[in-house]
Amino acid sequence: MVSVNAHDPERQEIVSRRTVLLGGGVSLFFAGIGARLYQLQIAEHQKYRDLAQNNQFNKRILTPLRGEIVDRFGEPLASNRKNFRILLVPEQARDVDAALDKISKITPVSEDKRARIMREIRRRGAFTPVQIADNLSWEDFSKINFELPHLAGVLPDVGETRDYPHGAEAAFVIGYVGAVTERDLAAQESDDERILLRQPGFKVGREGLERTYEKELRGAAGAMNVKINAHGRVIEEMVDSAVPPVQGKTLALTIDSDLQAHAMKVLSVPGERMPDEPQSAAAVVIDVVTGDILVLASTPAFNPNDFNVGIDPQLWKELNESPYKPLLNKPLSGVYPPGSTFKVISAIAAQRAGMKPSETAYCPGRVWYGNRYFHCWKRGGHGTLDMKGAIKHSCDVYFYEIAKTLDIDLLAETARDFGLGQTYELGISGQQRGVIPDRDWKKQYFAGNPAQQPWFQGETLSCIIGQGYVTSTPLQLAVMAARVATGRAVRPRLVRAVGDLVLPAPEAAPIDVDHDYLSVVHAGMNAVTNEWGTAARSRIEDPDWQMAGKTGTSQVYQITAEDRARGLDKPEDLPWARRDHALFVSYMPYENPRYACSVVVEHGIGGSRAAGPKARDIMKAVAEKDPASRTPLDPRTLARAPSPRES
Amino acid sequence: MSSIILPGRRRGVRDKLSRLHWPLIILLTMIAGAGVVTLYSVAEGNWEPWALKHGMRYVAALGLMVGIAMVPIRYWMALAYPIYFAALIALALTPFIGEVNMGARRWIEFGGLQFQPSEAMKIGLVLGLARYYHGLRAEQVSHILYLIPPVLMVGAPVGLIFIQPDLGTALLLGATGAIIIFVAGLSWRIGLAGVLGGVAAAYGAYRFDILKEYQVNRILTFLDPERDPLGQGYHLLQSKIALGSGGLDGKGFMEGTQSQLKFLPEMQTDFIFTIFGEEFGFVGAIGLLLVYLAIIFTGLSIAMSTKLHFARLTTIGVVATFTLYVLINTGMVMGLAPVVGVPLPLVSYGGTVMLTIMAGFGFVMSAHVHRDQDMYRSGDSLG
């Protein structure tokens, strides 16, 4: 106990003194507040009275129309359409819940949606309008307009929304737009941009070209003064002094939407032996002269219109969980062992190593190397073949024999020269590189396992037929076909023009390779389709459009002795996910190449059965339209009607 | 012998009611009345949704105040530490069991009632600090060792509220604590060093990004409102326009065009002084401020006339909190203080703050009713 005496006069005196001081301090502060009141209400009264008059005008942001995305001939792939919607100004509605209840009677507002609206109100503050419902039917929109006198704070509005007239067809090229997030706001460079992005229902590019070219597509905001009455309703718009918004730039693509649509249809046709299985497939068509990508197809695909209005969670779940990966951009992001399509690379590499195409090898159906047999796909063997025959019949043993002495680094270099193992500037993210193995790659890949780091020649035997470590994307395979066909380093592109600016076609330098090396490959590929090779069924009869090709079947799962014992030896007996991938690369016309194509059918079992016919159907359509012979859109001719629109 | 000459004796309830500080009650009721009038006007002449509820809440809170005043101040002294620590524990638990609202966890559920531990702490801290200084001799107050407990007592809740994050309440609590310590008799030297340390800490918080972006924005906007005329500065600008256009005698009851036009957000809470000033002008606003000042001086005189050291400091603490509310709120709507979300006591719509304020004045009233009681430092009764 410190002291028993509670009476401590000194202590009381200090408190009294300090209390008086405190009272003095408080008085000073109140005097300050009073002085400020005097300043605002008496001294500057005139100024604020004038401002109060002006306050009845509000600045309103005019949102620009988003730039269109069109195909090579001007057909719109992404445009804008009228969107009847209703907005709510929370502070005018006062009771937001009651307002939502009333609206629900006309157009349902789900619990989910309601929670989202409440969140948005909290985030944006009570004086910013929030979107309650959009894409309303004209009937519902009229009903709400009729009820308007009883709906305080509700603003009917005709907005514009993104529209993808071709739906799922070009989903992976275009991407989609989505609602603005806090992160988007933080990423903006100016306050003006932030104000624009805060406009109700404003969307920004989320995926694909919509995202990459967000800046160009967005356009510039305009502004208009509006006069407001005592209820906060707009009574007059000051149109004369308005600054109109500027629509975003048009993006003109290399895609041909007709051929794209056709390719999507062709890919979706179920395989003849598996009518029940959906086709999970990819196709790419390139103009080998310009590098223009005419077709970039992937099935199954999502519909970007579903994303644009805020995707339904159930649908999102389905898309994510489907084994056929409808959200994966297979031509760019799907990686597959190229299988026998890789043999065109192997044949060039062998010649670079000094081999003559006339040299022959004998195929008994399998070959012993190291400690095991390497099998040919044809169990009985092909007999004696030269290089052209080996390509035509896709003989594995012929290439195994080459692989016994071929340097893996030379094979990898050849593969890279012809477009594999690299990504391309297309403006679409998520592109995969695939793997083209060489000694350096293996050292890095097995950094933690020194025993595995040296290259074993047996591995070259797997790689030379496009198996083992080798993987590639359908886009790379199409580029490979284009480069083999032309001998030039064709570079693919997807965007032809941004606004009025037409981009030059990328330079395609000659590849440093003896042209004779390519000739035998050309002859082999021609034989595949036109001389009763592995894809004879995929022959195009039209002599002007003879197609040369190469099949590929890449193993996903090795059927074991146990499987065979259980009576399972045909690939059809395996579950879908374990079946082989089917691939096909081709170009046409054979004599004077213009188009190259690749097709991959996931788990489609056979390149000649599943992939070749699809490539043929696509290429037939390409031949018929021959887009390269037609004049593409001149972006300067696009009508640019100024379309001021308020939000 | 009557209790008048035997201080500290139990008194009857009727006797105690007669000893209530009735002028203070009248002043408080005047303020609450101004609140009802303004809320009626904000709702465009409707008792719903705010004015009627506000009046009813005030009556209930007044009952609570009188109830607290009836309990002898020494009982409250015995409960001071328990109340402080209960509030501190609730505050520490809020991050884990609290409800998230407007991006901050401030509320917890207790027996079906929502309650805000940071509000309870406004009472708890005042009681706790007063109890602590009650046990100290005059010369101990400025001893550095005896300064450690109160600094911790203030620092812990301030830190917890700061991370919620609720910058306004954290600053308010810190300032209240500082005022109690100052009035308790801390030497000027240490006090000055503390203030300088606080300024350095604030600068450090700004430099090293401890403040949330919106908090920094509010301060920057306060310094330059034109910086963001459609965002943060919007409120302030609209608020100044409404006040300034009110002029000497105002636009009249329910005639405030600016506030009625809904250019102002949160009119019924933080920006209510603006409507009052717009409709009743300079004369009305100064009148309201004078009533506030009268309450504050009444409180200070009660503090000086009561015998119990705990009662003195508790009264100072409650009056300090009240004063800070008034100064920060009015300063904020006039651009003298950052917009930190502090209501105008008894005028702004909101039940929790009204309860806190009136409960606080309950202790002041109890100090007044039992002003002749004294006790040992240990807290044992003298009589």
UniProtKB/TrEMBL annotation, chain A:
Which superkingdom, per the lineage? Bacteria
Q: Where in the cell is it found?
A: Cell membrane; Membrane
Query: Which parts of the sequence belong to the Penicillin-binding protein transpeptidase domain?
Result: 282-620
According to its record, how does it sit in the membrane?
A: Single-pass membrane protein
Q: Which GO terms describe its cellular component?
A: plasma membrane
**Keywords, alphabetical:** Carboxypeptidase, Cell inner membrane, Cell membrane, Cell shape, Cell wall biogenesis/degradation, Hydrolase, Membrane, Peptidoglycan synthesis, Protease, Transmembrane, Transmembrane helix
Query: Tell me, what is an example of a GO biological process annotation in this record?
Result: cell wall organization
**Which InterPro entries does the record cross-reference, listed alphabetically?**
Beta-lactam/transpept, Beta-lactam/transpept-like, PBP_dimer, PBP_dimer_sf, PCN-bd_Tpept, Penicillin-binding_protein_2
Positions of the Penicillin-binding protein dimerisation domain: 63-237
Looking up Pfam families in the UniProt record yields: PBP_dimer, Transpeptidase
* Name of the protein in question: Penicillin-binding protein 2
Naturally occurring in which organism (per UniProt): Hyphococcus luteus
Instruction: Please name the gene that encodes this protein.
Output: mrdA
From TrEMBL, chain B:
User: How does the protein associate with the membrane?
Assistant: Multi-pass membrane protein
Determine the domain of life of the protein's source: Bacteria
* Record has Acetylation as a keyword: no
What is a GO molecular function of this protein?
Answer: peptidoglycan glycosyltransferase activity
> What is its subcellular localisation?
Cell inner membrane; Membrane
Q: Which keywords annotate this record?
A: Cell inner membrane, Cell membrane, Cell shape, Cell wall biogenesis/degradation, Glycosyltransferase, Membrane, Peptidoglycan synthesis, Transferase, Transmembrane, Transmembrane helix
Q: Which Gene Ontology terms describe the biological processes this protein takes part in? A: cell division; cell wall organization; peptidoglycan biosynthetic process; regulation of cell shape
EC number(s)?
A: 2.4.99.28
The annotated pathway is: Cell wall biogenesis; peptidoglycan biosynthesis
The membrane spanning regions, by residue number, are 20-43, 55-71, 78-97, 144-163, 170-190, 280-304, 316-340, 346-367
- Tell me which GO cellular component terms the UniProt record holds: cell division site; plasma membrane
User: What is the reaction catalyzed?
Assistant: [GlcNAc-(1->4)-Mur2Ac(oyl-L-Ala-gamma-D-Glu-L-Lys-D-Ala-D-Ala)](n)-di-trans,octa-cis-undecaprenyl diphosphate + beta-D-GlcNAc-(1->4)-Mur2Ac(oyl-L-Ala-gamma-D-Glu-L-Lys-D-Ala-D-Ala)-di-trans,octa-cis-undecaprenyl diphosphate = [GlcNAc-(1->4)-Mur2Ac(oyl-L-Ala-gamma-D-Glu-L-Lys-D-Ala-D-Ala)](n+1)-di-trans,octa-cis-undecaprenyl diphosphate + di-trans,octa-cis-undecaprenyl diphosphate + H(+)
> A Pfam family name for this chain?
FTSW_RODA_SPOVE
- List the NCBIfam families hit by this protein, alphabetically: rodA_shape
UniProt function note: Peptidoglycan polymerase that is essential for cell wall elongation.
Q: What family does the Swiss-Prot or TrEMBL record give for this protein?
A: Belongs to the SEDS family. MrdB/RodA subfamily.
State what protein this is by name. Answer: Peptidoglycan glycosyltransferase MrdB
Q: From which source organism is this entry?
A: Hyphococcus luteus
